[in-house]
User: Which sequence fits this backbone?
């Protein structure tokens, strides 16, 4: 199990910890924050990008493929459902949409290129986001 604890420090600044590392999130000044760290969506995209890079590195290490460099860039936006070619016909209003740009450098043959593109889309965080998540919410007051 993975666990993160987040505590509101001041304003919109939040300190987070996994017990070994500490980092922060905040909102930009334009929406009332102090911009002391990435906003929550930037952290989400950072998790996805890190997972993509790590998954490709581990795959290449396992298959003994020389990976020179990998860079994963993700962009989040809300788009009109009617503008989404890959969406369900039942989608209405706005949908959350993530666009990827993964650059993989090395000397690969065509089969390796195809497989690496597939691996990039199969990192655990990508699969979790694509499947959706079940929540068990518990708010406590003290």
Assistant:
């Amino acid at each position: 199990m993975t666990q993160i604890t987040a505590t509101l420090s001041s304003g919109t600044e939040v300190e987070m910890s996994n017990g070994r590392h500490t980092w922060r999130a905040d909102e930009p000044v334009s929406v009332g924050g102090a911009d002391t760290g990435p906003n929550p969506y930037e952290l989400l995209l950072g998790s996805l990008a890190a997972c993509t890079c790590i998954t490709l590195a581990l795959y290449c290490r396992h298959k003994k493929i020389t990976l020179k460099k990998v860079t994963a860039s993700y962009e989040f936006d809300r788009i009109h459902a009617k503008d989404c070619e890959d969406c369900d016909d039942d989608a209405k209003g706005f949908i959350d949409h993530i666009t990827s740009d993964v650059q993989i450098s090395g000397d690969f043959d065509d089969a390796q290129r195809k497989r690496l593109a597939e691996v990039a889309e199969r990192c655990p965080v990508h699969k979790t986001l694509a499947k959706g998540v079940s929540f068990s919410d518990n708010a406590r007051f003290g």
In short: The two ends are 26 Å apart (CA to CA). Helices lie at 40-63, 110-120, 124-131. The chain has two domains: 1-37, 40-131. The chain has a mean pLDDT of 92.
